[in-house]
Amino acid sequence: RTRGRPLVVSATSGGGKSTICRGMLERYSDLGLSISHTTRRPRGKERDGVDYFFVTRQDFERMIAEGKFVEWAQVHGELYGTSRQQLESILLSGKDALLDIDIQGGFKIKRLYPESWLVFLLPPSFDVLLERLQKRATESEEKLRLRLQTAVSELERSLGYEYFVVNDELEKAIEEVQNVRLGLKKK
């Protein structure tokens, strides 16, 4: 195969997307990470150009106007987007492009790249999801409430995804996402 395929991994906030994606990249050298652009501030040890490209709202809006994103959305009041040039560069290198993005973005990628895999990570339970979000301790009470409301609607919309992986045990979840790429996981 000469061209890679997009592998979209989505989850509710606190669903473990970043952890699963890091694990995939550590284990599989035939994957390239498509790093999203965002207008939000870095959290914890996040680094520009590694975790996200942190840009101003003005720069992000200019990039939208110039058609530089294959998908973008406003999530929790901040803008997030996938660079067309970066995604194409990964795919043309022959690697599959790993996208750690929300559901809205996942559906847009699927429309533009019908060969994409859409994987939605499910928390083992709503209680576990709430616990993960509270453990982050990066949100105000109001933002936490907003994230939980968004999680409920994302779970409903995730029914449009092809693959579901319960993220209760890290190694098992990573293996299941890889099985999607290998064609071993049923839709």
Describe the structure in your own words:
By secondary structure, the chain is an alpha/beta fold. Helix content is 43%, strand content 22%. It contains seven helices and nine strands, in the order E-H-E-E-E-H-E-E-H-E-H-E-H-H-E-H. The protein has helices at 17-27, 57-65, 84-92, 103-112, 126-136, 141-157, 170-182; strands spanning 6-11, 31-34, 37-38, 53-54, 69-75, 78-83, 96-100, 117-122, 163-166. The strands form two sheets. Strands 2-7-1-8-9 form a five-stranded parallel β-sheet, sandwiched between helices. Strands 4-3-6-5 form a four-stranded mixed β-sheet. A hairpin with a 2-residue loop joins strand 5 and strand 6 (78-83). The longest helix has 17 residues, at 141-157. It is globular, with a radius of gyration of 16 Å. The protein starts with 5 loop residues before the first strand and ends in a 5-residue tail after the last helix.
